[in-house]
Amino acid sequence: MKGRVSAEMVAAYLREIGIDYIPVPRRDHQPVSATAASPAKRECPPGEETLEEIRNELASCRGCALCPGRKTVVFGVGNPGARLMFVGEGPGEEEDRKGEPFVGAAGRRLNQWIARIGLSRDDVYIANIVKCRPPGNRAPLPAEAAACLPFLERQIRAIRPVAICTLGGVALQFLIDSAGKITRDRGKWREFEGIPVLPTYHPAYILRNQTRETEVFSDFDLLAERLRL
Ligand code: URA
After folding, report:
1. CB of 89 closer than 6 angstroms to any ligand 1 atom
2. For 9-49, how does the pLDDT look when each residue is reduced to its tens digit (9 = 90+)?
3. Does pTM surpass 0.90?
4. Which CATH class is domain 49-227?
5. Domain range list for the chain
6. Which of these, 210, 225, 228, 226, lies nearest to 112 by C-alpha position?
7. DSSP string, 131-142
8. Nearest to 204 by CA among 65, 120, 132, 101
9. Rounded distance, CA 9 to CA 32, Å?
């Protein structure tokens, strides 16, 4: 073939042979204080996509059986340059209506945990395994999670947080370890593409099982330690 090979042609070819991600070197995260974690947008090096680009692509997604039932695509919320990212399961009714993750009772409990380590919801980034509400608030099916996971992975790559905290068994199993068990694995560091990941309980579970909240507190202490807060 004559002529120049464009970046788009290379990307299309890589996608065709099953490669949709080429790792880039991890950006250097300096320890900063909670107040220094500004919500300002981080500069995006050439070749890396922004959250807005991913959000735009998702807006019209028809990738799984959840799309006909959704009111909104619940993309994610928070600081695009967050040092700490949370991953939940999927939007509930209120989240579907408002288009924002963790805005109901479970979200209020999550906000309290975040405040406990000196951060606010605006400092961190919050997303879910699936972006559309599963009917009746059931857990996402494996096919739904598989269809949506590439978007979450791209969000993580765009943000490159210092640490990720998965909330509940579903997030642990779909993002980190399909054989994971939250009661056994919470509080133990795992990894996603070199980023430390700490599984803890889902706040909705804690609302029903208050006595286990001390375990979440110790997990958040580990997060604070990792972030040097
Ligand atoms: N539970 C989740 O896992 N995610 C939300 O966004 C809300 C509740």
Report:
1. yes
2. 444 444 443 443 333 333 333 333 333 333 334 445 555 89
3. no
4. alpha beta
5. 49-227
6. 210
7. SSPPGGGPPPPH
8. 101
9. 40
